[in-house]
Each structure stands twice: as C-alpha cells, then as structure tokens.
Amino acid sequence: MRVMKFGGTSVGDAARLRHVADLIAGQRAAHPQLVVVVSAMAGVTDALIRMSQQAREGNPEWRQTLADLRERHREAVDELELPEEEARALCEELEQGFGRAEQLAQAVAALRELSPSIADLLAGMGERWSARMLAAVLRARGIPARAVDADAFLITDDHFGEASPNLEETRARARAALLPLVEAGVVPVVTGFIGATPEGRPTTLGRGGSDFSATILGYALDAESVWIWTDVNGVMSADPKIVPEARTIPELSYIEAAEMAYFGAKVLHPRTLLPCIDRRIPVRILNTFHPQHPGTWIVPEPRGNGQVKAVTLIKNMSLITVEGRGMLGVPGVAARAFAAVAELGVSILMISQSSSEQNICFVIPSPAAARVVRALRSAFEREMARRDIEDIWAMDRVAIIAVVGAGLRATPGIAARVFSALGAGRINVLSIAQGSSEYNLSLVVAESDAEEAVRRIHAAFYT
C-alpha cells in the first residue's frame, strides 16, 4: 500500500485537480492499493482563518471572505466539466459545507468569541471541500473513490492549533475505516490537516499538517512508502532563491532531513517524520508539475558519510552572550541561564561555550532578544553586582548557517573547506557549534553576510 499526499498548490484549481487525478490514475495502474491525502486549495486555509478572525472582531467582511471562497469552489466545479449527476451531487455536498461554515461564523460574530475548537473546525473546512472535489474527478474518470474526513479516525490530544496524534488509537480506527475501502478497490481521498480529540472535538495538526496526516496514515496502514507531491523537485541542496545552481538531493536520511528542517530548509517538519521513523517507512518528495523528476527519497539510514548534502540558513536571529571571569568553574550557570530562557517559552537554536567557561553564547529568534536579556540580568543580578558575570548582551541581525550531512565531524577537511570558503569572501564567523551526532556544522554570521556565505559554502562542495 502507498500513501500519496497532494499539497494546496497541487489542487489549486480545476486544471490542477484534473492533473492530480491523472497522476493518481497512472500510479493506481501500477500500484492498485492507494490512499490519497489532500490539502485545501492554495490560500483557502489562510482565508478561513482570516474569516474566523473577522467574525470574532465583529467585522462584517467575514461574509465577503466566505462568499469569495464559495465562488472559487463553484467556479472550479464548473470548470471540471463533471457528468451532470456527479456535478449536482458535488455542489450539494459543497453547499452543505459552506452552509455549516456560515452558521459557525455567524455564531462567532454574534458572541464575539472564537473557541480553539471552533477555530480548528473552521480552519479545516478547506480540506473537506478539496477531498470531495478530487474524489468526484476520480469517479468521473472511472476510478472508484470516496472522500473520507480524517476526524472520524485521526485521534489527537486537545492542543488545538497544533495537536499531536495518538498513534495507536488512530492506527486501530484508520485500519477499520480505510482498509475495507482499499481492499474493495476504492481510493480513499482523505482530508489532511484535521483530526479530533477522543470526545470528537475538532483539531488541526499545525504546520505541515497535511504532510503529517500522510505520515500518520503511512504508520497506521503499514504503507510501503509515503509520497509527498508538492511544487518543487524534491529537497534542494540550498535555497534556489539564494543559490540558483542548487541541486535536488537524491537521498537523505531521516536525521539529515530533520537537521535541515530544524535549521530553516523547506523540508518536512521533523515532527512529520516521526510516524515513518517508527516503522522505517521511506518518504518520497515529488513535484506534481514535473512528475518525471525522481525527486528526493528520505530513508532510515544515512549513506555517503562525510558528504555535505545541504547548506541552510535562518535569518532574523540574535546572539545572546553571558560573559564573566567569575563564571570559571562555577557549576550551574548554564542551567540557570537556559532555565530563565525556558520560562519565557523561547527556543534556543544553537549553543556555544568557551572551553575556559568564561562565556556562554546561544542563538534565539530576534523578536525575543530584549525579553531574554532582561530575564537573564534579573536571574544573575547578584552575580553581576559581584562582577562574577560582567555583562549579558544581545547581538542582533545575525543568521545561522548549517552545513548538513552524515559523518561530517569524522571526515577530515570538511571544516577546512567551509572556513576557507568564508575566509576567501572575508566573511567573519561569530560563533561555531558542532554536535557529537556528526550531522551538522552550525555557524553564526552577520545577517548582511549570510546569503553570500551560503553561496560560497555551497560552491565549495557543489562544483
């Protein structure tokens, strides 16, 4: 069995829905057991969230936002040129969905209150509509298909907006709901992004939610692979907007893909890969609009030790420094610093400490820098008064560059090539970190130098 997920740009209009149906038909001919997961049409989820916020604020423009969405879907149905009976049934289903969205928005506007569960219910409407449209197109092509709402079986916690799945409960329910369809030759077209608590309260899976839905189903159904169809030729060795000569990476390990995603690359979110990691299910990233391209495989084990796979970049960072000669040999300074940051709910992306223990540096998102510096100065008020800690400050407008690949630390010459490339460009490195995992070398540079640094490092390994 194979799970295939199509993103919002892949199903963005009638022509693209027809193209996706052609891809599914071609795959089904060679691989009969398919489960399809779909996102909302491009831009629909953002519009639904905007509509919800307008309704909560009492802004009557929510009605126009919903009317625009209704018209967009109606036009798509007209352009699909479905058989009359199929088109009529689809229009009725969609109208029921829009009617429900309107009722909910009216209630929100009347109460000026938007509960997290209702917010998730409204945000996930687009997937319900696109699933029904794609299923109708498949049936019109003679392929048995049925739209299936994932909230009937994808069970999550109640962390609305970014819920986490209960994999074992979902596995049992998904198998009961989907396997009979697959075994009967029907293609289930499943809504991505949405789930429900055990009590049936609607939830959504957050960033990369439809990708996450696909990997959860891969886990639940013991799929041989999960294919993520998007609008790029797989995972790139660098951002092509920065490095025009960036290449598609043929293969990544789970951990390499997770490192890239953590450090800013447009890859599957690390959380998305977890269900497949548990079952060692490979994931393939493909381009809906260039289906002949082999794309990128994400597989359990890394191959090609010492090979730089990618160079990634995160901007809008700040480098926080805690410095003082009195820190030498004093236990607990790092723990107290990181505890103070954690209390603010701020993520630390990179840490570096001098071997003399006279300073600790770490990188956080810039919007949190002022709050973090204030919290640290408060936490170490006595130490600063005694001059054990001399200063705590933030350097803004910095960026993290990560050089990612398996076995980097153990491969002679990798770091030398990186720093030679930066030195040739007269780019100063402000901080360095390399973990014992050997999968990335992280550098901090001034944001003004960051893109040139990425280009030079990429050229050092991809020439």
TrEMBL record:
Domain ACT, first and last residues per copy: 322-394, 403-463
Binding site for substrate: T45, E127
Pathway note: Amino-acid biosynthesis; L-threonine biosynthesis; L-threonine from L-aspartate: step 1/5; Amino-acid biosynthesis; L-lysine biosynthesis via DAP pathway; (S)-tetrahydrodipicolinate from L-aspartate: step 1/4; Amino-acid biosynthesis; L-methionine biosynthesis via de novo pathway; L-homoserine from L-aspartate: step 1/3
Keywords: Amino-acid biosynthesis, ATP-binding, Diaminopimelate biosynthesis, Kinase, NADP, Nucleotide-binding, Transferase
Gene Ontology MF terms: aspartate kinase activity; ATP binding; homoserine dehydrogenase activity
Pfam family, one: AA_kinase
Residues noted as binding ATP in the record, renumbered to the chain: K5, F6, G7, G8, T230, D231, K266, V267
Transmembrane segments: none
GO biological process: diaminopimelate biosynthetic process; lysine biosynthetic process via diaminopimelate; threonine biosynthetic process
Enzyme class (EC, first level): transferase
Catalysed reactions, semicolon-separated: L-aspartate + ATP = 4-phospho-L-aspartate + ADP
Gene3D superfamilies assigned to the protein according to its UniProt record, in alphabetical order: Acetylglutamate kinase-like, VC0802-like
EC number, UniProt record: 2.7.2.4
Family: Belongs to the aspartokinase family.
Main function: Catalyzes the phosphorylation of the beta-carboxyl group of aspartic acid with ATP to yield 4-phospho-L-aspartate, which is involved in the branched biosynthetic pathway leading to the biosynthesis of amino acids threonine, isoleucine and methionine.
Name by which UniProt lists this protein: Aspartokinase
Species, as recorded: Thermoflexus hugenholtzii JAD2
